[in-house]
Amino acid sequence: MKIRISHIRFAVQLICFFLLLYGGILFGWRRIVIRDIEPPLPALACHYNEKPILLCFLYDLQRLLATDPKRALIYSIPFLILAVLLGRIWCGWVCPLITIQDIFIRLRSLFGIPYISVSEKGKKVLRIFGYIFLFLATGFSFLIGRPFCPLYRFSIDLELPFCQICPARHILPLLQGKREDFLYINRFSLLTEFISYTSITVFSVFIAGITFIRRFWCRVCPLGLLMSLLHVNRWSPFSLKKDVNRCTSCGICARCCPMELDIVYKEKEKENVLSKDCILCLRCVEQCPEDDALKFTVFGFPVIKSRFKP
Fold this sequence. Notes:
By secondary structure, the protein is mainly α.
């Protein structure tokens, strides 16, 4: 039986998911610290988890932008190094929320539930929400820490503006058995109560979205959007190369792409077709029916090639 790329990727996802959620609980692992620096994870590993070994970059970024912006810049350096080192493989192979999405995809296929294709206008609308989430995690976090800002007096209630509404805060602790925090309503103030209900709404939309739309959360994830804006795929050692002479324009790569990207299909001149939004799931390479039409390379060396499928 031939091992498929998607099977290998899903196995890696499950291993990462298990270690990130249960490494601290089952093995007593502590937060990873290297010379007083906690490496930020370029994936949504929730700080609401019990005994997390790594935390999402956005968590400390929000805290530091509100309290110490200069330190936030220093803190961003290891994130940039890790993001460039592996590009958006962090999204496609490590992120716990993508693993949950992939589980939902498999369940949907099992029950024969069709997915809903997102129109170009729909993609733009979802991207707008991604920018809103990214602003909450960056610009808004910076503003609430400034005494001149009217929101400063609400800085305690708005300590982590994105984390407070991120769906990970509900679903990941629940998977650890922390049922008391699931859909929790913080009644400390009217503002925290409003944020709690907003969080539950976002979580509900998240569940509905990943049930019917491929990679729904990836389209609005502020961390993924940040890495896309930084073009980390461009600077990473990875590339996705297309031999235009071998391509038969069958369109399989566009149809199988969970992010619904069509650059691999449409590109007729450039060899490297790795886009900034590609999460490197390599589904296109796996499904391409032509020998060597698509290649996944590391530092220019081909690692995975497409194969003819009779």
